[in-house]
Write a structure and sequence with these properties.
The structure holds two protein chains of two kinds. By secondary structure, chain A is α/β, with parallel strands linked by helices. Helices cover 43% and strands 20% of the residues of chain A. In chain A, helix 8 crosses helix 9 and helix 9 packs parallel to helix 10. In chain A, the strands form two sheets. Chain A has a seven-stranded parallel sheet with strand order 1-2-3-4-5-6-7, with helices on both faces. A two-stranded antiparallel sheet of chain A has the order 8-9. By secondary structure, chain B is an alpha+beta fold. Chain B has one domain: 2-Layer Sandwich (Alpha-Beta Plaits), CATH 3.30.70.3250. In chain B, a hairpin with a 4-residue loop joins strand 2 and strand 3. In chain B, helix 1 crosses helix 2. Chain B is globular. Classes of the chains: A alpha/beta, B alpha+beta. At the A-B interface, helix 8 of A face strand 1, helix 2 and strand 5 of B.
């Protein structure tokens, strides 16, 4: 049986009627829910949401969204935050940060603003990419830009990622309870963008859950020493 | 079978016309003709509906549901819950779902 994950739900989604949001996520068959924090936040502030989601049989994944303007800023943030969150995502606001973030193994996900046509997931980025490309459904659905140009851009990005064997992850990017989407509905967006149906389902299940379990294993089993070496915990 | 989340319960007519408009906006007249979406069961209290479409256009319908965000100026979220080849099975699911909701209340 497939296990579904929505790895990008903003914390403010839980501000009003949190039990209802949790119940909806459970009814939609999700197993993992990634709640996003900003760089200044501490993951312990998610304890209330963690309890609530656990009561509904859901697994909370702590995630940080970095929005660096420069390469140096990105590297500084990664050094500080990598081991505090289960997922590290970078919102690429320039082609320079897109290149650096994609290459850095400490980054799990990169995502772009679909309406900003200058900064995109290009072949040059895909060649050196060590992370997954994320597509947020709500960025597509609620974009102020003409839909045809956004779909055209995303079709190109899906093709580039597939050609370079870069995993794609589809998330809701929900900010309110009305923006939470069903996993199979989200997968259908990928099918629309040219991915095969089986691969589309992996974008909301297999790739996403593998990323979470892999990161948890790394965080539990190993500790990074000051010298940069990796040692077994305990 | 799809569920919708909104503050006010829309009429079947509003739902059907918004769904058709959304499909037309994204897939054009040809897409609408191929999909032929039809609401065959609607329960405004349970906020559940059954949408009928051609089997080979299921993915298209699901994608269209993603883009359905507003009905008559009120925000809405529509998501698919179950799919089946027969109406009988889906109606049984709707009844089961309504019962479960009643028990919870």
């Amino acid at each position: 049986m497939r296990r579904y994950a929505d790895l990008h739900v903003y914390r403010e989604t839980f501000n009003t009627d949190a039990p209802r949001v949790a119940a909806t996520l459970k009814r939609l068959d999700f197993d993992y829910v990634g709640i996003t924090l900003h760089a200044g936040h501490d993951p312990t502030i998610l304890s209330a949401q963690k309890k609530l989601l656990e009561a509904h049989g859901l697994d909370l994944v702590s995630r940080v969204d970095l929005q660096p303007r420069t390469r140096a800023e990105l590297l500084g943030l990664l050094r500080r935050l990598r081991r505090r969150f289960e997922l590290v995502a970078v919102h690429c606001l320039s082609n320079e940060t897109a290149l650096t973030a994609s290459r850095d193994k400490r980054v799990d996900l990169v995502y772009f603003t679909p309406s900003d046509m200058r900064i995109r997931f290009r072949t040059a980025v895909a060649h050196i990419c060590n992370c997954a490309l994320e597509i947020n459904v709500n960025d597509v659905v609620r974009a102020q830009h003409p839909l045809h140009s956004i779909l055209n851009r995303l079709t190109g990005e899906v093709a580039v990622a597939s050609a370079n064997k870069i995993p794609i992850i589809i998330s809701s990017g929900a900010r309110t309870h009305l923006q939470v989407k069903a996993p199979r509905d989200m997968a259908s967006l990928a099918t629309l963008l040219g991915a095969k149906p089986e691969e589309s389902l992996n974008m909301v299940s297999g790739h996403a859950t593998a990323l979470v379990t892999g990161n948890r294993r790394k965080l539990q089993e190993h500790v990074m020493l000051e010298s940069g070496e990796v040692a077994e915990k305990g | 079978m799809a569920e919708f989340d909104t503050s006010s319960a829309p009429t079947t007519h509003d739902l059907a016309s918004t769904l058709k408009d959304t499909v037309r906006d994204i897939f054009g007249e040809l897409g609408l003709a191929r999909l032929e979406p039809r609401i065959v069961h609607y329960n405004p209290e349970g906020k559940i509906m059954i949408i009928r479409c051609r089997r080979d256009s299921l993915e298209t319908l699901r994608a269209a549901l993603l883009f359905l965000a507003q009905i008559e100026r009120s925000q809405v979220n529509v998501y698919s819950l179950k799919t089946s080849g027969t109406l009988k099975k889906l109606k049984a699911e709707v009844n089961l779902y309504a019962e479960r909701t009643r028990v919870k209340q």
